[in-house]
User: Fold these one by one.
Assistant:
Number 1:
Amino acid sequence: MQKGQTIWDPLRKRTVALTPEEQVRQWFITVLAGEMAVPMHMMMSEVPISCQGKCWRADILVYDRRQKPLAVVECKRPEVEIGADVLEQAVRYNMVLDVRLIILTNGRSTVMVSRGKKGVSILERVPSYEEMMEL
């Protein structure tokens, strides 16, 4: 990546600095819109969240048809391992969001944790938008 490079964020509808984390975020937006069939208007990126007096930003939120948060995606640079600390960060966001699906990705590894009618489980495959609403 060259210094000063930018990329168009279709969710924020503006160009943003092309950092390694941003590159992962933009790649995963294409996964959500393509493979998972999430309508673009049902996603937002860099969403502010307030919890316990602190402010954070969720990398990507997916909403259901009633505009209730359905999934949160936490994106990390490729060299950051997806481990307990990354999951802890997403769980903190979920204290406010109460979503059915937590997705953690660094572009090399993706972990999806479902909290649904059948309890908490790690998903083995990428669900479609319709399947996400049935979790």
Note: The first helix runs from residue 20 to 33.
Number 2:
Amino acid sequence: MLKKLDWYTIKTYFGPFIFIFSVLFFIFMVQFAWQEMEKFAGKGLDMITIFKLLFYMGLSVVQLVMPLTVLLAAIMTFGGFGERYELAAMKSTGVSLGRIMLPLFILVCLLSYGLYVFSDTVVPQSQRKARNMLINIARTKPAVNFEPGVFVMGIPGFSMKIGDKSGENGQFVEQVFIHKDVSAFENQQTIVAKNGIFEPADDQRFLRLSLFDGAVLEDEIRNKNTEELRRQPFREITFDTMVQYIDVSSIVEKAIEDEQITDHYKFMTSTELRGRIDTLRKNDSLTYHRIFSEKYQTLLSEYFLMDTLAKNSEENITLPPLSSIEENKKASLCNSAVSEIDQHKNSYQINKTEIQNRNKNMARHVLVLVRNFSNALMCIAFFLIGAPLGAIIRKGGVGMPVVVAIIIFILFYLVYMYSENLAKNGILDPYWAAWLPVVVFFPMGIFFTYKAMTDSELFNIESYLKPFQKLFAIFGNKKTEHARYR
């Protein structure tokens, strides 16, 4: 049964919590929008579509905003209690700090569970909707990907530039220039057209570009010497209508399925992620077994070869001395040895890259899965840090509490990102990396809670200097007495 004191504590906490969450969510969203806005602004999209897309993409910031809000609101609430001597009045009636924190602790536990549910359901759905919006924009609004007077380099196989565009969705283009992306020793091809129109293709991964009144310019360069290139005639093929297909899947994201992307790890719930991780483990195990078998067979064949040579040497069958081999054969043998070494190096590098990519893919799945839990638990850890710190600091408002909360959150963010990079680089197990912030900050919260409940002078510098002062006093007294009786 909640008492009036509990209701008063919750009411006092909820005011700063709502205000801080609103401010932080706005700041994080503005910062996110500032980074992403340049991809969409001025490209033929209305502001409602842009804000809707940014909102879907930015909902994931709640996973970081919620723990910081809990921390800052706890420091401000209990700092205000201490500054107004309300905390001392509560304690004077026999109510301990732990009892004062209990209703808010239960509330934060409920908020943590809500954050887990939000991360496990709302965030994947919002990411899926944002990605589907990007797919639809790429297919129906080509102005997002093609700007007048600017070469678009992200199209596989060629580079493209348009002079102008028109139409509601930017589908009508003029002065089209398309150049095939090949090396300097390959045949060159350039397409120019006065105008064209973008249309959706039957295959949703492509965008159809119909060109009108243009020409194809070609230069045959492959296997041509300088003289042949100089005498090569100018080749131009004019056309009335020509159709080009542009792969837009690489511009937005690869692999779409009926405009519904369902196989990305960011779009999965915890249950789906567990199933995907089990599948990845089995596939990785088969791949590692295949790589091991191939290398083992290679080493085994080399071992038997060396064993055969050793037996031949025991039977006095010796190889001819190096001096008796002709010079051209020596060079051939050296080149063969170098070629074999390069093949081994390339083979090992390919296997290394494949293993690293698989480890990174596994780490991404594990981090998303486990951090749905760890981010929720960080709310509890930050409350156990913030409430005792507020009671010890005894400063409310937005001054000292904000400074302390920012310092703690910066430390948390450094641990958060550092552990993630270690996991993706295969240095740290992804499960440990996901739980590392909780492992670091939960004991810190228990320590601060214990110090606050025992009325420890945690931030009083004199309390830490007292042992040294006593030590200096002891040695100082002995020196004085020695001088007196000498």
Note: Confidence is low (pLDDT under 50) at residues 252-261.
Number 3:
Amino acid sequence: MKETHVTHEFIPIVDHNTKILILGSFPSVKSRENAFYYGHPQNRFWKLLASILECDVPATIEEKKEMLRTHGVGIWDVIESCDITGSSDSSIRNVVPAKIPELLSDYPNIQAVFANGRLAEKLYKKYIDPRTEVRITALPSTSPANAAYSLDRLREHWEKILIHLDDKRGVDG
């Protein structure tokens, strides 16, 4: 497979009610084909989030956007453009970071930023951290490549997002 320069074409899914921002690294080939985040059928993002938020798993892009908006969750990716081979995170080079500091400034209700996987965390710390006061919390990747984590094990880690949302289900305290 050949390395290509790819520009991220999805807008961030945020509004003025967004309380948390979940950042991935860069959309997979399948996501780019489907023109929306976490579009690979084996990616567990939508199933996991629906489980945590105790709602139905969204099927359409509009249902996904509605679930996010209803619960104060925003999504975007750390990379605006890069050189990449297929969907391989390990092949990513020549990163141009997304304008996350500007987004955080435009949406001051965002209380916390979470990384969907270690690469998103690493890139955020390298490119974004020096330009903002908002730190990132890494969560295990929902990618099918992260087979070490079952859906239940992912949920144990991801439930911490509820601390920042109005809905405190599953959170002690």
Note: The radius of gyration is 15 Å.
Number 4:
Amino acid sequence: MTGTDDVSGAPLDIGKLPPELLGRLLGQIAGADPRVITGARVGEDAALIDIGGDTRLVVSSDPVTFAAEDLGRYAVHVNANDIAVMGATPRWLLMTLLLPEGAPPRLAQDIMRQTLDACAEINVTLVGGHTEVTRGLDRPITVGAMLGEVRSGEETPSSGARAGDAIILTRGVGIEGTAILAREAAGRLRAAGVPEAVIHRAASLLDDPGISIVRDAAIAAKTARVHAMHDPTEGGVATALHEMATASDVGAEIDAGALDELILPETAEICRAIGARPDDVDPLGLIASGALLAAVSPQDADRVIDALRADGIRARVIGRATPRGEGLRLTRRGSDGGVTEKRPLPRFDRDELARVLDGG
């Protein structure tokens, strides 16, 4: 950054950088290497690099900072998701593991075992990384870098959505955030009156339906020509929709009723219970690994959904891409099909999970 860059403003909150700031930072990258087809930009999950021949390399990196349990498993799947939504197959993982001072050797062993088990589930090979004990940490942190490959012409970057496309969401809203809250804030949930059975079911969402969308993305890409896919993470499904729309230069009209159908009962109950006021925590802004967003031609939407459901994956159309000038809207319809509510799709400057865990 140069001395003339504007770096004023309020201190940054925990979580993703504000998109405007991130866009300015990424805008400083010079595109010197012509082999970089898709590079660093707001809304894209991974980079796409031409390495010659019919195969292209796909690369992404993601940390895991919210979760303390099953850290290795989280790290593998959130990184693999970024590769899969590019239409690629995850192949190789590098992992950096930072342990807090005083960590027992057993912790490193447990995280390694979780990592290797998760890699085996999706046929990924751990090829390297770095591990150390680091000052100033109160919990272990992992940062993964995943590499994959895709055939030329079969890429599905987040920037590919077109006005008129049907937007599909799989599995559920806020799956990852629900599981983390059940594991990291179980005491608060019990104090708020959430039954033990609900907390247990919510914690198990990490395994069922799980946070991997590698299979979802592969099925969608095999069934139809998918224009764009995106992996909702921090900021939830709402933020992911904003990111995909920004990358694709489109707007969106999202069906609130369709989203409601994909909010799991455990998510709804936990969000109602843990906020300062009823309904204070919005599932749409809750970290959302475990769901896939896909944009396809309207005539292909039913075929993709049928293929996903045939594999036991919940899925439905939640809206459509629109011209950019129409913005992003959340619409609710009555039983007669008429519009009863229309408002801007909410933005979340901070993930609801971070806000809850920090008591904000």
Note: The longest strand covers residues 89-100.
